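Lecture notes, unit on binding sites. The following record was shown on slide 14. It pairs a sequence with zinc ion.
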Amino acid sequence: MNLTVTDGSPLSSPFSNPQLLPLRSIADITAEPILVIAPHPDDETLGCGGAIALLKQRGYAVNILVMSDGTQSHPNSQKYPASALKDLRESETRCAMKILGVEPTHITFLALPDGAVPEFGAADFKTTVNQCCRYLTDVNPNVIFAPCRADPHPDHRAAYQIFQAALAQTRWCPRVIEYPIWDWDLKQRQPYMQSWQQVWRLDTSKVVALKQQAIVAYRSQTTDLIDDDPTGFRLTPQMLSNFAHPWEIYLEENH
Ligand SMILES: [Zn+2]
C-alpha cells in the first residue's frame, strides 16, 4: 500500500481509518535479535508493547534502547529533581519490560538530554551516531523498531535520524519497522509527505492486558505521582486510548 500524501491534509493520515489497514500476525516477523528504540522511557511500551510481549512469548531476543533520560516531563519538581526523575523513569522502564518479558540485561539507557536528542546537523549528532554504532555492533539486530521518521516530536525524529546514520556507517541492513506515537495526537499530526510501501497493523489481541499493565508501570507519566510541578506532563486518557487497541500500527519500506 503506497500512502504518499500530497494534499497536506492531516485527514489523509493512515491513522484516520486504521481499521482499513491490513492486519498481520506476529509470525510476520521471522528474524532476531530484535531492537526497539525508544526516544523516551515509555515509547517502547506505548508504540510496541504488544509486539515486544508477543516476540518474547515466541522466545525471541528483544533489546530495548532508551535514548533520552526523560527528565523534562517534570522539570520543576522539587520532590523529583532531574537525577531522581531519571532514576524513577529508568526503574519504570525496567518494571514495564519485566511485565512484557524483557530481561534487565537487555535494556540500555543512553541518557541523552530529554528534549535535545541531537538531530542531523546538531553539534553532538556525530558523537551520538558513533555511540549507536558501537551499540549496533554489540547487539547486531536483524529487526529494528524505530520511532516514525515523521513523528511530530523532535526527539523521535532525531532518534530515527541517528539510527539511519548509524546503519549507514556500519553497513548493517536490518529490517526497519517504524512506529508512530505523537502522530496519534490530532493537534500535532503532521501531513504525510513521506511514502512507505507498507503500512499495517499487528494483531496484539492476545496481549492487550499485558501491554496495559506495562503502560500502568509508568506511574510518573500516567498518574499524579509527581504532584509538585504544575507544568508537569501527563499522558491524557485520550492519548492513552490510542494505545489500547488490540493492534499496533507499523510503517515500513519494502524489505
Ligand atoms: Zn517520546
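Take-home: The beta strands are 23-24, 34-38, 62-68, 107-112, 143-147, 175-179, 198-203, 247-252.
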